[in-house]
Structure formats: C-alpha cells, structure tokens
Amino acid sequence: MLRSFWTQWFPPPPNFTEKDVPRQDGKVFIVTGGNSGIGLELIKILYPTGATIYMASRSEERAKAAIQSVVAGKPTPPKPGALKYLHLDLDDLSTISATAASFAAQESRLDILWNNAGVGGVPVGTSTKQHLEGHIGVNCVAPLFLTQQLIRHMQEAAASHPGSVRIVWTASLSIETHAPANGVDLSLADAGRTQNPPRDYAASKAGNWLLAVEGAKRYGGDGIISVAQNPGQLDTEVWRHQSSLLMMFMRPSLHPVKMGAYTMLYAGLSPEINADSNGAYVMPWGRVMEGGPRKDVSNAIEEGHATKFWEWCERKCEPFNESRGLR
Q1: Which of 13, 34, 45, 301 is the most exposed place for a label (fewest CB within 10 A)?
Q2: Among residues 27, 84, 205, 316, which one is catalytic?
C-alpha cells in the first residue's frame, strides 16, 4: 500500500500530453464539471484539436465565462474545435433526462464522456435532492444515470470507431486510505445523508472504480472502453471544505491542476488504453495500475460487488428513467 500511495502522490512525469494528441475533427466529447479545475484544464487541451466539446455544468453563467476564457486564450489555434454549454445538475436526478435530450437534439454521436464533476468532503448531513448521501449521489448515481442516457450515442460512435469511444470515471487516492471494506458499504450508502465526509467521499470514489469495471463488462462488446482514473493530488476546489490548518500543511505537496488534466487526457485518448485494458485503473499522470489500488476491493469486484453496486445505483434512478431497458 505504501508504494502505491507514494507513486500516486509523487508520480513520474507524464508521457502523454497535448503534443501527443492528433486532430480530433468530427469527434464529440462531454466533460462534466468543465467550467473549472481539472475539467477546464482538459478542455483547454482539447479545444485546439478540432473536436466539438460540451462543457457540462450547473451554472450557465460560469460555464459561458469559462468558454470565453478558452476561446480568447493565446496563442489562437489555427483550426479550433467548437465549445458548447450543456446544463447538468448532478444533485437532482429529475434533471438528467433533460440534459441527455438537449445533447441528443444537437448530436448523433458521443465519442468520449469524461465523468469529471463531483463533490468532496461535503459537510455532515448533506443529501441530494432525492435524499441520497451527498457524495454517492453526485459522484456515482447521477453520473451513471447520465452515462446510460447517452449510451446509444456512444454505441453509434463505436460502430464506426470501436476502441476509441470511452467512458472515463473519476477515482481518488482516498480509496486506499478511507474507503470502507470492499470499497462501498451499501448500508452506509443508504443512510441518505453524509455521516463521515472522508469515508463517504472515498466510498464514492471506490464506487466510480466499480462502475468503470462494470461498464467495461456491459459495454465492451459494443467497442466502448470504460476506465477509472485517479487524476492525482491536485490543488483544486475539492479541498474547499477542509480546514485552513490542514491545508497549510497539505498545499505544498499538491500538484498544479494541469497535471491532473494529463491523467484524464491519457485515460480518454492514449492508444495505450484499448480493449485489453478495458476496466483499467489509471494512475497519475497516465499509467495503468496492475490489479487495483486495494486488494479487498479487487476481490469484491471478482465476487460481483461491482454488479451489485451498479444495480443499486440503477434502482435509485429508476423513478426518473424515461428510457426503459438501458443496460
């Protein structure tokens, strides 16, 4: 565990950056939470490639300001892509179908979905609109619902480009230190409110690993790759609920946000990620981990825990699912 912890907190330099990304003309991407932090840094890398990129976030005002900052950035790329806002509120499952419908009205395909948006360390007592524990609801249940609502667009893209179509889930080093036994304890997840912020956050990140593995199992036959990635220990807003005393000690060891974007870039576009590595766990700043970050969670996956968690999430979404029969 100590070796894994160290290599994820202090990784070697990235080997897949903007200079390694070919043109992406005709491709369509969604980056959730793209108006700030890692998502915004990723979009800055993707914008010059020619892809159509949807910045999915709750605040239209902040998203449009972020889009303008990318478009106005220097140097101006010779053939940039298109940046569009997509409303997304992961705190409210009743809005997800409308988000997918808005996307479907504009696009016939989706090549990569980066499930980047999330919350971390929210206060005790936090619940979503549907009374789900704050972390598991925003970080796992709603992203799975969004993914399923968009999966037909991904299948359409994979029909002509199998292996290049990807779902990227966001994990965390906290899985190793704070997640409960087997990654997710459904009895705790069913509590309906945040009880222990570090543990509940870590459980949601382990949940994203489980969803990545199960997604690979369910969609791999369609030519879709599903992976989890730990973007790294970064100086982002995810720490905003932590005490100033803690951050005084933590901040010197945190890395620039752009480094996390390289992890996400690798997970989404590196040719090293392929059918053979479907379901992989990607470490900072773009390396595939053998096995996974926790042996007990890996064993739980082998015993069907990922399937159980996927189905648990589906049951939470069912009252809001306007497209029955999704896998």
Answers
A1: 13
A2: 205
